[in-house]
Amino acid sequence: MLIILLGPPGAGKGTQAEKITNDHNLAYISTGDILRSAVRENKELGRKARQYMDEGKLVPDDLVVEIVKDRLLNPDCRNGALFDGFPRTVEQAVFLENALPDLDVKIDRVLSVEVEESELIERLTGRRVCSDCGANYHLKFKPPKVRNVCDQCGGDLYQRDDDSLETVKERLEVYKKQTQPLIEFYQKRGLLSPIDGNQEIEDVYKQISSILGEL
Ligand code: AP5
Ligand code: MG
Ligand code: ZN
């Protein structure tokens, strides 16, 4: 099974991905997480990507496509995979479409999580992330049990560099220009399922579960 989570920054892709991968035994492929860890570990990829990420711009397609090619060869993808934050441009989507027949897989569903812009800004500026396991929290909407400590692994929570108000606004503009066209791209292919992301985390997951249950 191959599922794509599409949606603007702050829509709740990472939050829902955690639940989906737990319940469906899918490999989790988040290009954002892979890029952030490359930055943290000061790898060549991280050095190339950092400035784009800090400015809220997209990292060039050729770098991202290399990450995905590599990741799809990992044996954990044999049972299927969940993409979070990829593809993000029409070029990336075309690459994926062309790469899949060789791997003998097809896209089963594209879940397009839709959320109001004012809500996105509040979610992103209040987000905290675990520095060890990557779990997502929110100061107001999903606070950890102990302040600044991850419920799942005890790791420290931090604020992402790109979650400042200024960078959030840029990311939302970039989304509209470069990623939103993918909604029509996948609609035309009959793969798109819109998800109302303006609800409580559990209610969003209920919609997703019922769609995945029908596959
Ligand atoms: P990436 O890491 O993919 O970030 P993003 O797409 O901007 O999305 P976010 O992770 O910010 O949001 P999310 O939808 O996962 O929301 P979350 O669940 O955390 O990309 C980062 C950067 O990397 C890009 O800007 C780009 O530079 C680069 N990059 C990555 N992939 C790329 C690609 N393919 N091509 C080129 N460049 C790429 O939720 C947000 C907050 O809201 C949390 O605090 C959460 O607790 C809370 N929350 C979640 N759901 C709810 C709810 N229902 N109600 C209330 N609060 C909620
Ligand atoms: Mg995310
Ligand atoms: Zn953690």
Word description of this protein:
This protein has a domain at 2-115 and 177-212: 3-Layer(aba) Sandwich (Rossmann fold), CATH 3.40.50. Strands 2-3-1-4-8 form a five-stranded parallel β-sheet, with helices on both faces. Strands 6-5-7 form a three-stranded antiparallel β-sheet. The protein is globular and about 45 Å long. The N and C termini lie close together (9 Å). The longest helix has 15 residues, at 165-179. A hairpin with a 5-residue loop joins strand 5 and strand 6 (136-138). 32% of the residues are buried. It has helices at 13-24, 31-40, 44-54, 61-72, 90-103, 117-125, 165-179, 181-188, 201-213, and strands at residues 2-6, 27-30, 81-84, 109-114, 127-130, 136-138, 157-158, 192-196. It is of the alpha/beta class and 215 residues long. The site of zinc ion has 8 residues, from loops.
What's the gist of this structure?
The protein has 215 residues and is of the alpha/beta class. The chain has helices spanning 13-24, 31-40, 44-54, 61-72, 90-103, 117-125, 165-179, 181-188, 201-213; strands at residues 2-6, 27-30, 81-84, 109-114, 127-130, 136-138, 157-158, 192-196.
